[in-house]
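User: I'll paste a sequence; please echo it back and then give the predicted structure.

Assistant: Echoing your sequence first, then the prediction.
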Amino acid sequence: MLTIGQLASYAGVTVRAVRHYHQIGLLPEPERDASGYRKYGAPALVSLIKIRTLADAGVPLTQISRMLEADEATLAETVEQIDARLRGEIERLEASRKQVRQLTAGDSLVLPAEVVAYLDRLRAIGTSERMLAGERDGWILMAARWPDEVLTWVPDKIAQLEDPRVVRLYQVLSQLMESQEVDEPLAEEAIDIMVEFAEEWEAAGLDLAGTGQDDTSFALLDDLADAADQRAGWLRDRMRQRGWDGWTRMKRLEKPAGST
């Protein structure tokens, strides 16, 4: 006959676990003997080993009692249900592991590989990391809002980098963001390029404003640009003086700011 400590040792569990199984009715608690001690026999040890084995396999304690008492068919059905639950849990954990591993993957954490490749192209032409951070955040919003369309936009964005003016615009804006104060000649160069593009697109009949097309999402993208650097407001005011407003969807103002 075994003491509770010996029983726990033989079964490979703690005394605390044995007492918990007693408390929830999973393992019957024997009566005390004449000396006042509880003694356990072989049947109790076998039951405890079965309980430990099932618990280690991930079976909830609330189901173990039913499994120990079930006939073969019921036991097989219960095992299938538990196995299905464990497979689902494994899949969830594997997905979590993949996300955790991606924490060291930089841009690819939340962006498709095609967008990451585009950001790498921007880095290669001299775009600053601060500028890239704002660009990355914009793509994160777009990928969340338009997950099916976003990959179709990447080829056009990469093709635009063949235009030296686009490359220069990224370089100038990067320099502006890295400077301590507003560099007016650089700022005017950036504005000249943006206005030149806007006027070309307008002449080609493109709908730059995209009126009514998810204004809130585009407003959020513009807000990202404004929040990226405190000088963005200054640039935007100068753009308005030239008759244009907006970053993501530029629109011509009916009356330029400051005009009479």
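The chain has three domains: 1-69, 70-104, 106-252. The first helix runs from residue 4 to 11.
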